[in-house]
């Protein structure tokens, strides 16, 4: 009997370590269940150099992988950004990928927290690619508020914020625009996916 109680105690302890409650639900140690999720996590790690041990869903059901457990205001800001995105997408008659569960957001460590003017701007460094040689090029990489990393399923990376979470809503909406256009309007997507030729967000007004 004593050994059985000991085993049960150990099991409960392991559960307590691997998950804890937030108002939005259960934050758990991230264990990608399928090959698609595993590929997404591997790709995000490759891009950012971070690990993403935490998985949580926003109150409305978007998927979030993070280095550390996101605060409730961060999760709400993600939902708000998606809500704005879905609203403007419906105004344009788009119907595909208008469900929170369609989206996976990775929250990575910010490579900088201020832009060139000194304004608060948590951004990630990504390969310069088509921006090489432009004013954005910082020596083989650029700073970006977010980066689309997969179209099916819809996934993108944003930087960690410790304040001004309304900025998160903007980043989520703007990165989501590329995904919405990819699945609903390939012609407009093709004209707006590459900002190195000019243009910016919001694309959908």
Describe the model:
The chain has 205 residues and is an alpha+beta fold. It has a single domain (27-197), classed as 3-Layer(aba) Sandwich (Glutaredoxin), CATH 3.40.30. 38% of the residues lie in helices and 24% in strands. It contains five helices and ten strands; from the N terminus they run αββαββαββββββαα. The protein has helices spanning 2-18, 35-48, 72-91, 166-184, 186-192; strands spanning 19-22, 25-29, 54-57, 63-66, 103-108, 112-114, 120-127, 141-144, 146-150, 154-159. The chain has a seven-stranded mixed sheet, sandwiched between helices. α3 packs parallel to α4 and α4 crosses α5 (186-192). It is globular. Mean pLDDT is 81; it is low at 1-26.
**Biggest sheet: strand arrangement:** 1-2-3-4-5-10-9
What form results from the Cα inertia axes? globular
Count the strands?
Answer: 10
Note the main sheet.
Answer: 7 strands, mixed
**Strand-residue fraction?**
15-25%
Number of helices: 5
Unreliable sequence segments: 1-26
CATH topology: Glutaredoxin
- Average residue pLDDT: 81
Computed structural class: alpha+beta
Oligomer: single chain
Please specify the SSE layout and strand pairing:
Elements: H1 2-18, E1 19-22, E2 25-29, H2 35-48, E3 54-57, E4 63-66, H3 72-91, E5 103-108, E6 112-114, E7 120-127, E8 141-144, E9 146-150, E10 154-159, H4 166-184, H5 186-192
Parallel strand pairs: 4-5, 5-10
Antiparallel strand pairs: 1-2, 2-3, 3-4, 6-7, 7-8, 9-10
Helix pairs in contact: 3-4, 4-5
